[in-house]
Amino acid sequence: MKRRDARRKAALDRIADHMLAHGIGPSSLRALADTAGTSDRMLLYYFTDKDDITRSALSLICLRIADALEAAVPSGSRYWAPEAMSVLAQVMRAPEFRPHMRVWFELVTLAMRGEEPFLGIAGQVADYFVDWVAARLEGDDASARRAEAAYLVSALDGLVLLDCVGRHEAADMALAHLIETAQRDMGGLAASNLNPPS
Amino acid sequence: MKRRDARRKAALDRIADHMLAHGIGPSSLRALADTAGTSDRMLLYYFTDKDDITRSALSLICLRIADALEAAVPSGSRYWAPEAMSVLAQVMRAPEFRPHMRVWFELVTLAMRGEEPFLGIAGQVADYFVDWVAARLEGDDASARRAEAAYLVSALDGLVLLDCVGRHEAADMALAHLIETAQRDMGGLAASNLNPPS
DNA sequence: TCCTTTACGTAGTGAGCACTACATACCTCG
DNA sequence: CGAGGTATGTAGTGCTCACTACGTAAAGGA
Q1: What are phi and psi of B37, to 5 degrees?
Q2: Of the residues A37, A106, A177, B120, which has the maximum number of CB atoms within 10 A of its CB?
Q3: Rounded Cα gap, residues A140 and B60, in angstroms
Q4: Residue B14 and residue B181: Cα distance in Å, rounded?
Q5: With an 8 Å Cβ cutoff, is A181 touching chain B?
């Protein structure tokens, strides 16, 4: 029971890599087995069925995303909205983060069909991300922070979506406009320390 | 050459319906033929191959989306940003519009893989939509309108994404926050008439 | 009427899919 | 050493997929 678990874990790691590189849908058992260095036969020995594999790989990927975000924006830091938007956009629009965003969007389209487990997972991820952003915003009113976080999350998703279809210029314009608007919204309050466009 | 074209067109209409209802990916030739009232054999007689079918259905769906948007927000009307956001969100978040948004998101995830024709189509759709919104905004500066439009489009996409994963409450909060922010941003200028077009 | 083009049905093809039956190697413990 | 569970290879199963070979009916112009 030990050797099996170890191999299962190792396989899952490679499987997550493969899904990040090629997507959830196009990942057949055979293709996953190849990159994991085993056979489809063995994958179905380590996991109960393909759904188990998908579910497991997806949660591993979610953990990786959470880690990447945590590393980029540790939980201690507090930002006011325009700053947060700038920092998060920089992280999430980075080329090396693109595979994660692609899996996120694919997960969303699978969830839209209403099929489990995708709908459940996608909802949890969205909740997690909103809370995660809210925890990093300034302000005492928790519900106001949550509203602002929901706003930032949806704007970020839309931004990355534009990037994903090759409209980087439009995404740039949208981001600049958003930051500018948010800055003006905060009154003249501390409109100084923002590295990107002033 | 006439009968064939007529049948092709009729089939395409039903095919678009099927794709809106069930998605692009899960639409096999057989399933499409069933809802079109023919056989897969005949679909490949009307069209050159499945890619031709997908491409054709997708452009028909895009036309339908354009029509629906045009009907909801005719080209004569001009809005200032918070108004526009409110109106567009109401249209695009409506349950009857959901199938169209699902196809849009699926198109985006297909485009993310970099495969044609999806990447090209998705880019065109994004461009079209940004221009469409820009043409309906107030203001003389065309490039400022485009920037604002790109911002609104990305925010709208993110909003609908939250809806699609079942987070309607978060989407509501995000929308409310966005409108409030945008209103405050415009100064006190005409912060009164939000519902109707000016 | 005959003949060519167009339209359509039947019945496949080979490939890929998730998944399995079965035999055998291997490793561990008594 | 030998028995019994654990691990793995081989070779399938039945299914769906996009697509096709081939034959024939219908349509339409001469």
Answers
A1: 75, 25
A2: A106
A3: 50
A4: 43
A5: yes
Q: pTM score, two decimals? A: 0.92
Residue-wise pLDDT for A26-35, tens only, equals 999 999 999 9
Number of Cα atoms under 13 Å in the Cβ half of residue B174: 32
Q: Is the CB of A41 under 7 A from strand C?
A: yes
Element (H, E) at A34: helix A29-36
DSSP conformation class of A125: H
- Residue A191, pLDDT score: 40
Ramachandran angles phi, psi of A18, nearest 5°: -60, -40
Q: What is the pLDDT of residues B126-161, one digit of tens each?
A: 999 999 999 999 989 999 999 999 999 999 999 999
As a whole number of angstroms, the distance between CA B15 and CA B56 comes to 10
Q: Provide, in whole angstroms, the distance separating residue A28's CA from nucleotide C27's C1'.
A: 32
Q: Which of A20, A22, A133, A154 to mutate to test the interface with B (most CBs of B within 10 A)?
A: A154
HEC profile of chain B: CHHHHHHHHHHHHHHHHHHHHHCCCCCCHHHHHHHHCCCHHHHHHHCCCHHHHHHHHHHHHHHHHHHHHHHHCCCCCCECHHHHHHHHHHHHCCHHHHHHHHHHHHHHHHHHCCCCCHHHHHHHHHHHHHHHHHCCECCCCHHHHHHHHHHHHHHHHHHHHHHHCCCHHHHHHHHHHHHHHHHHHCCCCCCCCCCCCC
For residue B127, give the nearest of A108, A111, A167 by CB distance.
A167
DSSP helix/strand/coil, A79 = strand
Name residue, tokens 């989407």.
B171
Distance CA B26, CA B7 (A): 23
C-alpha distances out from residue A3 to A8, A34, A46, Å? 8, 20, 10
Interface residue B88 vs chain A (CB under 8 A): no
